[in-house]
Design brief:
- By secondary structure, the protein is α/β, with parallel strands linked by helices.
- The protein has 3 domains: 6-66 and 94-177, Rossmann fold, CATH 3.40.50; 180-358, Alpha-Beta Complex (Argininosuccinate synthetase, chain A, domain 2), CATH 3.90.1260; 369-400, no CATH class.
- The protein is 39% helix and 19% strand.
- It has helices at residues 15-28, 47-54, 66-78, 96-109, 125-136, 154-163, 241-254, 279-295, 298-316, 323-335, 366-369, 382-400; strands at residues 6-10, 31-38, 60-64, 114-116, 141-143, 179-182, 187-190, 220-227, 230-234, 237-238, 259-265, 271-277, 341-348, 351-358.
- A hairpin with a 2-residue loop joins strand 13 (341-348) and strand 14.
């Protein structure tokens, strides 16, 4: 093994990262610093401190990053109405650059030689963690145990943990559970029976949302206030970014909103089936498009829609800290200066419907749009010249073909 004196490990306290912690100590004979991020995953993170301490870790970082996560990562992404391959709201993808950022910062603070993560050699997360780390710290050393060891099954990991007396919570009857990832934006499920794309996800799997058919029979109306493209208030009550998203998750979950079952194309080349619950993000996306519909210039809105798939792929593939993402972000953020106002939504049995939108910066002119007498605001006869000019090239081509 390459000489390493100290390594910073992204540590959850679960089976994989607890085994990795001991494996790093055994194989690299190095000191391990653990970093546990609270991104709103809905689980206590403090138990990770006791587990790390029990395994001999002296420097333990446990940080509440919920506000930074939503403010500096989720909100900028939502300004672009970002969605990958038409369905995925990028809940896992958008969390990785923040974790990568803190890993390299902690490595610098503790004079560590390397960072380490628990992502497998088959997934996207290894790419996201490491591209982010290299962009922020070009000479950082990365240790990815799943690409080095032979502990390539849950059974081997459990055997390793038992041999080395690593404390692990009781496994679920010996059967592999779903691989799950959660933060304030979403919770994801992969593996187990989901590896067959024909098998329907069991109802017991879902944790954040009720089944749409079991949601309340009475719709819920909510109002979201936007300032420069970001939600700043819910039902007139000012809230921080993380508080907004947490509350929308709660409300959306009660009404069966945000379930998705998709097969996506991973950056590493394979197709992967995953199920996602993103109640708050689903509501945010609908509302943001609604407020943009009255505040964005037509060509700006259409250009944003053209840029969005590229921006989504940049995030999905792990290039958050790249110059192209920053360039795109500057253009997107510039477009949001007049995206202000209020959107009213109706939530009902899994659906999110826009029922109203208003803004002091609206470009919607009722005098022009009306079907009634507009008092001369729009001269309908002007449309004839507009149509003939736009038809000119087609008329010329048709004449040449003898039509």
């Amino acid at each position: 093994m390459t000489s390493v004196n100290k390594v910073v490990l992204a540590y959850s306290g679960g089976l994989d990262t607890s085994v990795i912690l001991r494996w790093l100590q055994d194989e690299y004979q190095c000191e391990v610093v653990t970093f546990t991020a609270d991104l709103g995953q809905g689980e206590e993170v403090e138990p990770a401190r006791a587990k790390a301490s029990l395994l001999g870790v002296k420097e333990i970082y446990i940080e509440d990053l919920r506000e930074e996560f939503v403010r500096d990562f989720v909100y900028p992404m939502m300004r672009c109405n970002t969605i990958y391959e038409g369905e995925y709201l990028l809940g896992t993808s958008i969390a990785r650059p923040l974790i990568a950022k803190r890993l390299v910062e902690i490595a610098a603070e503790t004079n560590a030689d390397a960072i380490s993560h628990g992502a497998t050699g088959k997934g996207n997360d290894q790419v996201r963690f490491e591209l982010g780390a290299y962009a922020l710290s070009p000479d950082v050393k990365v240790i990815a145990p799943w690409r080095e060891w032979d502990l390539n099954s849950r059974e081997k990991l459990l055997a390793y943990a038992e041999q080395r007396q690593i404390p692990i919570e009781q496994k679920r009857g010996g059967k592999s559970p779903y691989s799950m990832d959660a933060n304030l934006l979403h919770i994801s499920y992969e593996g187990d029976q989901l590896e067959d794309p024909w098998v329907e996800a069991e109802e017991e799997m879902w944790r954040w949302t009720v089944a749409p058919q079991d949601a309340p029979d009475t719709p819920r109306d909510i109002e979201l206030t936007f300032a420069a493209g970001d939600i700043v208030a819910l039902d007139g009550v000012a809230m921080s970014p993380a508080t907004v998203l947490a509350e929308l998750n709660r409300i959306g979950g009660e009404h069966g909103i945000g379930r998705d079952d998709i097969v996506e194309n991973r950056y590493v080349g394979m197709k992967s089936r995953g199920c996602y619950e993103t109640p708050g993000g689903t509501i945010m996306l609908k509302a943001h498009r609604a407020i943009e519909s009255i505040t964005l210039d037509r060509e700006v809105a259409h250009l944003k829609d053209e840029l969005m798939p590229r921006y989504a792929a940049v995030i999905y593939n792990g290039y958050w800290w790249s110059p192209e993402r920053m360039m795109l972000q500057a253009a997107i953020d510039h477009s949001q200066q007049y995206v202000n106002g209020v959107v009213r939504l109706k939530l009902y049995k899994g659906g999110v419907m826009v029922s109203g939108r208003q803004s002091d910066d609206t470009l919607f002119d009722q005098r022009v749009a009306t079907f009634e007498d507009d008092g001369g605001a729009y001269h309908q006869r002007d449309a004839e010249g507009f149509i003939k000019l736009n038809a000119l090239r087609m008329r010329i081509a048709a004449r040449r073909r003898g039509v």
